[in-house]
Structures are given as C-alpha cells and as structure tokens.
Amino acid sequence: MGRSDPEEGQLPAPVKPPDGGWGWIVLFGCFVITGFSYAFPKAVSVYFKELMKDFHVGYSDTAWISSIMLAMLYGTGPVCSIMVNQFGCRPVMLIGGLLASAGMILASFTTNIIELYLTAGVLTGLGMALNFQPSLIMLGAYFDKRRPLANGLAAAGSPVFLSALSPLGQVLMEKFGWRGGFLIMGGLLLNCCTCGAVMRPLDMGMKRKMEKTQDKYEAKEMLPIGGKSEEGISATDGNKKGKKAKKKPKKGKKLLDFSIFSNRGFIIYTISKFILVLGLFVPPILLVNYAKDTGVPDTEAAFLLSIIGFIDIFARPACGMVAGLKWVRPHVSYLFSFAMLFNGMTDICSARASNYTGLVIFCVFFGISYGMVGALQFEVLMAIVGSQKFSSAIGLVLLIEAFAVLIGPPSAGRLVDALKNYEVIFYLAGSEVVLSALFLAMATYCCLNRGKKKEPPAEKNPSAAGGSDTEEAESDVQDAEEHGSDNHQLDHSTDNTMVAASEEANHVAEEQSREGGGCPQGDGEVLARDACNADQTVERDRF
Fold first, then answer.
1. What's the pLDDT score for residue 59?
2. How many CA atoms lie within 13 A of 116 on its CB side?
3. Fewer beta carbons within 10 angstroms: which end of the chain, N or C?
4. 160: closest CA among 72, 318, 285, 40?
C-alpha cells in the first residue's frame, strides 16, 4: 500500500534524505558545479584585453560575454525546471556539461565578437545553467537535518574557484594565448559531466522488494499450511491488481508548478530577492575602479577582491553551521534578513572610505555579509517551498532575478558616468539591500507568523504550504482505508456464511436423531460419521 509504479505515470513515494553516505559525494559535485557557475563568468574577464586587440572592440563589447553567461544562468531557470521534472537531474546535468565544454571549445575557433557571444556566452551559459539548478535540487534531496551546513559548504565553491580560475586563466593566456586558454577551459568544464554522473537518484528498488516480501509473508501466516497458501498468495496478488485497475491514476508531476505562487512565503521571498539583487552585486563590480580613483595603485586595488573572496570562503560554511542549530533553523528567514541588513549597512557605512585601510575594512565586513547571504539564500527557499516543489521554485526565482541583474549593475554604471561620484552609488546600493532585509523580516512576521497563530490546530493542512513531502501520502492513506474496509466486509460476509452453514447442519442432524437414525448429535460431526445410514448420507449430499 502507498506504492506507485513509475511506468504507470505515477510519482514514487518520497524517500527520507540519508543526510550522509553518498550525499557527501553529491555535496562535492554541487561544490564544483557552484564554483564553475558563479566563478567562470568572472574568470573569463582576464582574457578581455587580448580579445579587444584581436577583434578591435571596446571593453563594453567584451564585457557582454560575462553578462550573457550570467543572463543564461538566471534567465533559463524555468527551462531547467521543466527539463529536470521531465527527465531527471542526472541526464540534464550530463547534457549541460557537454554544452558548456562545447561552447568554450568552439569559442577558441571564432573569428569575430558575435561568434563569441553565441559560443562562450549563450552555449556555455546554457550548459552551466543546466548543471547549477539540478545540483541544488539533488543536494536538497540528500540532506534534511544537515541541509543548512550542506548549502553553506556547496556555496563556498564560488569563492574557492574564483581564487583559482583567475590566476589559472592568466597563466594559460601567457603560455598559450586566449585561444589555447579557451580550449583548455573547455576541457576543464567536462568535469561538470563527472559531477552530473555522481548525482544518483535515491533508490526505490530495495523499498519495493521489502514491501513485496512482507506482503507474501503476511499472506502465508494468515492462510493454512499447504497448497492452499500458494493459492491464497496468488489470489491476494490478483486482488491487488484488480484494486490497482479500479483505482484512479494519480496525476503526473507537472513540468512547471505555478501553484507555488499561492504560497505567501514564496511571494515574500521572491519580492525581497528581486530588491536584493538590484544592489547586491554593485559594490564588488565598482570597487576596483573606486579604489583607483581614490589613488590606490592597480595591484593593491585588485587585491581588494581577493580579500573579499578569502573571507567569503570561510563565511559561507560557518553561516551554514549556525543556520543548522536547533534554535536557529526554525527562524532561518530572520537570519537571512540579518545577513542582508548587515550587507546593506556595510555598503552605506563605507561609502565615504577615502583611503586603502578603510577599503580593506570594508572588504572584510562585506566578505562576511556576502558569504552569509550566499549560504542562506537557497536554504530559505528550500524551507519555504519544500523539496518536492523546489525544482519549479528555483527556476522561477532565477528568472525574476535575471531582470534585476540586467537592471542593477548597468544602471549603477550609467549613474557613475553621469554623476562622477561613487559615494552616491554605494548609498543607493546599500539602501536597496537594507530595504529588502526589512521587507523580508516584517512581511514574514506580519503575514506568516501571525497567520499561523490564528489558524486553529484542527484546520491545519500540511499540503497547503506547498512544500510538504507528504502530499502523495494522503491519497495513499485513503486507498489503504478503502482496501482495509473491503477486506473487512469480505471477512465479515465469509464468517456469516460459515455460521449459517453450521446452523443448517445442526438442524438436519437433530431431525434425523428424532426419527431414530441413531446418529449422534454434535456440531457438524454427525455428517462426518461412517455409522450413519444411507438416508443420512443422501441428506448430507443434498445439503
């Protein structure tokens, strides 16, 4: 009971996350995928000067390569969700790894900037998108109690790979040129296929075998020993098949579940995340130019980003550990709000930093707050919608974030060109991040927590939150009750028939004894004695 066959288009019952075991291999794969997805568009910037010389284009033209990669990573979220829901995580990731690698390999043979946009931008960006989203889905499937820590460790892949890919790209460009560097980078992206291969879906085969064995064992215990037990088992299997044929088929999994928009928590999270992305990426993008304008040498200005990355490496796992504490996890949305508030206030307070020491202090605090935001963003989303609907939720959220990414940093660049003042930009970016933090905290408290207090306990519906893993269990329980009631009615009718037959046999025996047949009375034993006469035998056969 409660099982379903994938061959019939029904969803398998959710499996309890193991919180370890093979999940650690999945976590390492997610670490690598996250590192490539977020760090690769930034690491490609080391080739921009050579591309400008070969193709005779400006910096803004080459910067579109990274922008297209990020746009594909965010904007193709719904497409990834549909493919994951249709084919599963592992096939999608294998295809994504091949596309990402093919894009960079083909880019090494391009002859103009437009071809670079189509290969390194569109093709590689699409491949990384098809790897990034399924890896997060598999991470949520393998971890539950340790999920905050797992998300923090996986998110640490971004700063680690950024600190490794940028120097590697510089070395490759010096030895092999940008074409050789692109070719080798394409080979490195084939590791995404390896990470996709380890994303093994949770096995349901052992669970089905155990339940089938248990059913047969129960049938043998209930039926008499002998040949009739095998007949009973076959009859039980036949009854199950008949019930399965009569039972209405369950609905297949939707390709893209828009019902999550009925979840108030998801709406609040999406709005807050859109406001956050408008200002979150602006300071690190403008930091190097801001430092140069204040008189900081080029090498020291570039080192500021390394400080942020180094702090970020330790901030993300540490924040994941804190979020996994028993007294913190139920309030993880408020911790996420604090992280955003911390980040926004860091931008505002450092807007007037005019020397290198002040900028270093800003980078330290920005690295801590930025790491906290990166470690908690997907953990909060998983907690809101649950693992069953996370694949659709993350795709829609990334699509909405794509618009914010295309609005925020370009608008900040235009304001810098118009005002020639970085201080205003830092104030504006920090204010947007603070606004998103206040909105998330206040909306969560007013709209969600108070709503839960007002609801009576009897009317709570676990599946209404959209993130419950027991949505399929309700229909299974109902089927089990119907199956149990049918068995009860069958047993009751069988008992009634046996009682009626016994009473009829006793009545015939009493009549024969009155006629002097000499057959002793008993509970059915009269009909089985060899001493009975022929009339009694005829009477027994007629009965």
1. 67
2. 22
3. C
4. 40
Same structural domain, 304 and 208? no
Q: How far is the CA of 140 from the CAs of 189, 268, 362, 371, 391, in angstroms?
A: 24, 21, 33, 20, 10
Q: Give, for 278, the enclosing helix (H) or strand (E).
A: helix 264-280
- CATH for 101: 1.20.1250.20
Q: Please state, in angstroms and as integers, the Cα–Cα distance from residue 10 to each residue in 81, 181, 249, 487, following that order.
A: 19, 47, 7, 25
Same domain, 156 and 51: yes
Rounded to two decimals, the pTM is: 0.66
Mark which of 451, 480, 497 sits at the end of a domain.
Answer: 451
Can you tell me the distance from the alpha carbon of 46 to that of 43, in angstroms, rounded to the nearest whole number? 6
> Cα(220)–Cα(217) distance, rounded to whole angstroms?
5
Contact 36, 129 (CB under 8 A): no
Distance CA(528)–CA(437), nearest Å, equals 87
Give the model confidence (pLDDT) of 18-52 as tens digits. 888 888 999 999 999 999 998 888 788 788 888 88
Q: 362 pLDDT band (50/70/90 cuts)?
A: very high
Q: Which residue among 174, 205, 221 closes a domain? A: 221
CB of 125 closer than 8 Å to CB of 69? yes
Burial of 67-91, coded b for 16+ CB within 10 Å and e otherwise, reads bbbbbbbbbbbbbbbbbbbeeebbb
Q: Distances from the Cα of 432 to the Cαs of 17, 337, 368, in angstroms?
A: 37, 13, 18
> Is 72 among the domain residues?
yes
Tokens representing 400? 């909405």
Domain range enclosing 350: 257-451
- Alpha carbons 214 and 298: distance in angstroms, whole number: 71
